[in-house]
Amino acid sequence: MRRRESPSMHRPTNRTSSWPLARFAIGWLVAGLVVAAAMIGALRGIRDRTLPPLQRTELSVAARAAGCRVERTDDERPGNPPSSGIAVAAPAQPGVYAHSPSGGRLLAAVRKGVIVIHYRQPLSDDDLEELRTLQEVVPVGTIVTPNATRMQPGIAAVGWRRLLSCRRLSDATVDAIRLFRARNLGRGPDSHP
Questions:
Q1: What's CA 134's distance to the chain center, in Å?
Q2: Tell me: the pLDDT tens digits for 149-177?
Q3: Where are the domains of the chain?
Q4: 19-28, 50-59, 64-73, 145-154: lowest mean pLDDT where?
Q5: What number is the average pLDDT over the span 52-67?
Q6: CATH architecture, domain defined by 59-184
Q7: pTM reported for the whole predicted model
Q8: d(Cα 114, Cα 97) in Å, to the nearest integer?
Q9: How far apart are CA 11 and CA 9, in angstroms?
Q10: How would you label 90-127 residue by residue, b for 16+ Cβ within 10 Å and e otherwise?
């Protein structure tokens, strides 16, 4: 007589069906950890390149606190560095310059509504880094350049027919420049939408 086997005796076991999924998950986890470790290593030593919140929100108050002057200029009194006049060259492109573009190129950029931040040399590496950060906040509307016009102030920001001149760079000066740029960006006679 044949013995009947119960159906449960030959039921296949499902032990290996979850193993490929677990290996897949472990592989992704390990890859994620490797990428995270690489990113942490790459970012170590890079300083935060953001600007602190503004301490003042009114340009005249910020300029006074920084020891800066805000001036209006015109074609007869263009200021130093110049903030008005006729463009005689192609405009300088926004960016940070090690050597100053010609005055005509800077004036043409100002006429297009770009803000030009001039500094008198020498400038410390930390101060130059601060100006680079200012430029990076509005990269298509800001030029940072050493001054070639023998200006008296240590720092000057130029917009069309407006000039902000400051003795030195400080946190208060950075606030004044930011507010000056916000008020004058895109306000040149040759700026087009």
A1: 5
A2: 999 999 999 999 999 999 999 999 999 99
A3: 16-43, 59-184
A4: 19-28
A5: 95
A6: 3-Layer(aba) Sandwich (3.40)
A7: 0.75
A8: 14
A9: 6
A10: ebbebebeeebbebbbbbbbbbbbbbbbbbbeebeeeb
Contact 169, 68 (CB under 8 A): no
pLDDT of 47: 46
Q: Which phi and psi angles does 105 have, rounded to 5°?
A: -70, -40
Least confident among 23-27, 64-68, 110-114: 23-27
> Minimal CA–CA distance to 159: which of 114, 108, 120?
114
What does each C-alpha distance from 120 to 46, 125, 169, 177 come to in angstroms?
Answer: 27, 13, 10, 15
Q: Which amino acid is at 151?
A: M
Q: Which residue has the tokens 């720092």?
A: 155
